[in-house]
Design a protein that fits this description.
heterodimer, A: about 325 residues, alpha+beta, 4 helices, B: mainly alpha, about 75% helix, globular
Chain lengths: ~325, ~500
């Protein structure tokens, strides 16, 4: 092999005077050429892998968490610590669902609501009537007028509810997963149909946190098997392919599923999935803005976004595989 | 004892030594704290680092920690720029000594005790020393303004090719002065809300409140402060690079007034966000940013033209390829302005696109997506500023031949790979859905990690080399201790 020496010299010094720090890299022309080819090949492989299609219908592990998705729990009236800086706030007493609304529950709702005329088909989407919001003309504010608004899209490949023209059904394996790909209107409409409503941000946070200052529903720190978050290595994710996916509601209850041991991650009031899995729509409509707020973090975000005070927001028509909801009454 | 005294004298009493120390400090902080987030957190490195260093990370104080981390790094960067200024520009020796002393003690206190306070339990004495450090840097800034006073006849232009007034006032010095004065005022602009929110650690990150229609004056002040400080660091660096390259002639004569105008208007716009002028503040900011960016563009045109002319001087009629070769033959001279151009892809372009299509595209996405763009584009700008400093530092070291090529091109290529990855990552929602993004995200993460990792590795190699050199009786440091930056301005 022909040796090739890369040397360097200091400003104003001849090669003979070059100090010891001269960098000498042993290589040869042939090896360099091969290296370049290898780097180019590696880069091409990376690009190809980056463009690889994702199987959105990859088999989903089936687990029963044993948590009743129809259960509600009582949150007492009183003070609690609200927000990152522990402001003291008060709520009245209310009941909140123990888990997120599941895909099965939402399909049942749609079957009933379609028959009742509460929702209707509009092309490839389900829409429902919303009475509209007050418009204040604030910068970036958009009008939310009375009328039919998107509840769920049916033509999105991530939609787990299917419609055969007469009946809504659930894609196999997703029955006990949280309902996703649902807009704020769709969440609002569901709760209203069952004579309940979306929780306010305060109600949501109190239910998640209880009356102390904990950052997570279960306590002070987060571990991988506390919740479903980005790259938490749960049985539902594959970071090389489809990434994170939802887990069944109430999954993190201390049970062992196969080889996967979860930690009991219920909130002080016994609610599950108040951190991770899916963001949860809340009900506040704030003056001067059309955005709706979400809480709880999701399968798609790092652990820092699972802290109970973290807020996210989007337009009320936004749908995502990482956004769901639960109701209060 | 003489051994230590000589090295100490070089490291803390020469411009190049001071710059080396500051770069080393930033490198250490970046390497250590870079392990606390992103992929490093995913693979468990964060937990190991936290345990190994005995860090005390309270969940509710994450935002406060990050604010201190940003300040710790930013102060060291400002110190480097100040050293460059005091090394490049004429000023009274007293000012040079006092400024360098104050800012060195200041940034070290800020960095060491700020990080100590934020990450290793709340020792309030550390917090006091952190604030003391920031205050010393502020005083150094005031002294710098006095030192740069451009109407002193001693600083009038000697060369008619430099932008000047009829009276002889050097407009480049006025531009430096304007940037220094506005930086000091803008520091105050952040210090007031900093004191307000910092008391009790009740801080917030600007990107988390960006969509709220109602913001308090203090919140506007924080948002304005972080934007203008980064912009001013970039403006000052552009002026420094211009001085190093000996920017002169017609392009410079047009660029300097534009830079002065841009700096002042940009600041007025940012300060305006806390006044009743808030509704038009953004428009004023655009008006100010445009001449500043034009001035940078003129520097680029002039320097590329010069590189081509110098590189093809021996040819009677150079063709395109020969001109291109001349342009890129010295990565350390070509690199800084190339990075300024590349910034338009990673930062300015994204910013303008977002501003134009904000409601139609970006505000339809959830806030967390918008946050990625916001944090991504200014991280990219910060990284570009760092690479430009490293390229100038490479020239200060006197790198020549293949090592110069290797060092310069490594910085350009690795950083651009990483930053291109960041930019595509920020904008991915334009062309891929959440459900289908993971393979693309993985590829982009590899690009970012590879680029930034290699950049840090390169920096580590340079730092180890410099450390080894310090142990030599007649190492490179002995030359650097006596050579001033003003002597090494391009001819």
């Amino acid at each position: 092999m022909k040796r090739f020496i890369l040397s360097s010299s200091l400003r104003g010094r001849s090669p003979k005077q070059s100090p010891r720090w001269q960098v000498r890299l042993l290589t040869c022309t042939g090896v360099r050429r091969k290296c370049r080819r290898a780097i180019a090949l590696l880069a091409m492989t990376m690009i190809m892998l980056s463009c690889a299609p994702v199987d959105l219908n990859a088999p989903m592990p089936i687990f029963e968490s044993g948590i009743d998705s129809n259960a509600w729990t009582q949150i007492p009236a009183g003070e609690f610590y609200f927000g990152q800086h522990n402001d003291i706030e008060t709520t009245k007493a209310y009941e909140i669902m123990v888990t997120d609304v599941t895909v099965t529950q939402y399909a049942d709702f749609l079957n009933g609501a379609l028959a009742d005329g509460y929702v209707k088909m509009d092309g490839e989407k389900i829409v429902g009537l919303y009475p509209g919001d007050e418009y204040n003309g604030v910068k970036h504010e958009e009008k939310i007028e009375a009328g039919d608004w998107l509840f769920i899209p049916l033509n999105d490949p991530s939609q787990r509810i299917k419609f055969d023209g007469t009946t809504f059904t659930v894609e196999s394996g997703y029955e006990n997963h949280p309902m996703t790909m649902v807009s704020w209107f769709g969440a609002w409409g569901y709760c209203k149909y069952y004579e309940s409503r979306l929780p306010t941000e305060m109600e949501w946070e109190k239910a998640a946190r209880g009356t102390d200052t904990r950052p997570f529903p279960w306590g002070e720190e987060i571990q991988l098997n506390n919740a479903n978050f980005y790259s938490s290595r749960d049985p539902f994710e594959n970071m090389k392919s489809f990434g994170s996916r939802t887990s069944p509601v109430g999954f993190y209850n201390g049970q062992k599923y196969g080889d996967y041991q979860t930690l009991d991650s219920a909130s002080p009031y016994g609610l599950y999935d108040m951190a991770g899995n899916v963001w949860q729509w809340t009900g506040n409509v704030y003056e001067g803005m059309h955005y709706r707020f979400m809480r709880g973090g999701s399968k798609d975000v790092y652990d820092m976004d699972l802290r109970v005070w973290v807020r996210n927001n989007a337009t009320p028509t936004y749908v995502s595989p990482g956004v769901g909801f639960r109701c209060v009454r | 004892m003489q051994f230590v005294k000589d090295r100490f004298n070089y490291l803390f009493n020469s411009t190049k030594g001071l710059i080396l120390v500051a770069i080393a400090m930033i490198g250490l902080v970046t390497a250590a704290w870079g392990m606390l987030s992103g992929p490093m957190a995913e693979i468990g490195v964060r937990d190991w680092v936290v345990r190994a260093f005995g860090m005390d990370l309270i969940q509710a104080e994450r935002e406060g920690r990050i604010v201190i981390l940003y300040h710790a790094i930013a102060m060291a960067v400002i110190a480097i720029e100040t050293y460059m200024l005091t090394g490049l520009l004429k000023m009274k020796p007293f000012f040079k000594t006092a400024i360098n002393l104050l800012i060195t003690v200041g940034y070290m206190l800020t960095l060491v005790f700020g990080m100590g306070f934020a990450y290793f339990g709340h020792n309030w004495a550390f917090h006091g020393l952190y604030i003391t450090g920031l205050s010393l840097i502020f005083f150094a800034g005031i002294l710098l303004c006095m030192a740069l006073y451009p109407w002193d006849k001693a600083y009038h232009v000697a060369n008619q090719e430099h932008a000047h007034l009829k009276s002889g006032v050097d407009l480049e010095r006025v531009a430096f002065f304007a940037a220094a004065v506005t930086t000091v005022l803008s520091a105050l602009f952040g210090a007031v809300p900093g004191s307000y929110f910092g008391n009790g650690f009740e801080v917030f990150l600007a990107e988390n409140i960006i969509r709220y229609p109602e913001k308090t004056t203090m919140e506007y002040s924080v948002i304005g402060h972080l934007h203008i400080m980064l912009a001013l660091i970039a403006i000052m660096l552009t002026l420094i690079i211009g001085r190093w390259l000996n920017f002169k002639g017609l392009w410079q004569k047009v660029a300097m007034p534009l830079m002065i105008l841009g700096t002042i208007v940009l600041n007025l716009g940012v300060w305006g966000v806390v006044t009743p002028l808030q509704p038009i503040a953004h428009m004023v900011i655009y008006v100010g940013a445009t001449p500043s960016m034009l001035a940078a563009l003129f520097l680029l045109i002039w320097s590329w033209n010069k590189l081509i002319k110098d590189g093809t001087a021996h040819l009677t009629k150079p063709n395109f390829l020969q001109k291109l070769k001349a342009l890129v033959q010295d990565p350390l001279k070509f690199g800084p302005t190339w990075q300024m151009l590349f910034m338009n892809f990673t930062t300015s372009g994204i910013g303008i696109f977002m501003a134009i299509r904000l409601d139609e595209i970006f505000r339809v996405w959830p806030a967390r997506e918008e946050r990625i763009e916001l944090t991504g584009h200014w991280h990219a700008l910060s990284a570009i500023i760092a690479t430009i400093i490293l390229m100038y530092y490479g020239d200060m070291l006197g790198l020549k031949g293949k090592i110069r090529q290797l060092y310069g091109w490594s910085i350009i290529i690795f950083s651009d790979i990483a930053l291109a990855g960041v930019t595509v990552f920020e904008m991915k929602r334009l062309f891929i859905s959440e459900a289908e993004q993971q393979p693309l995200v993985n590829g982009l993460m590899y690009a970012m990690d590879f680029g930034l990792g290699m950049l840090l590795l390169l920096l580590a190699v340079v730092m180890v080399w410099r450390l080894v050199d310090l142990f030599k009786p007649k190492g490179r440091w002995t030359e650097e201790a006596v050579h001033e930056l003003s002597e090494e301005v391009m001819k």
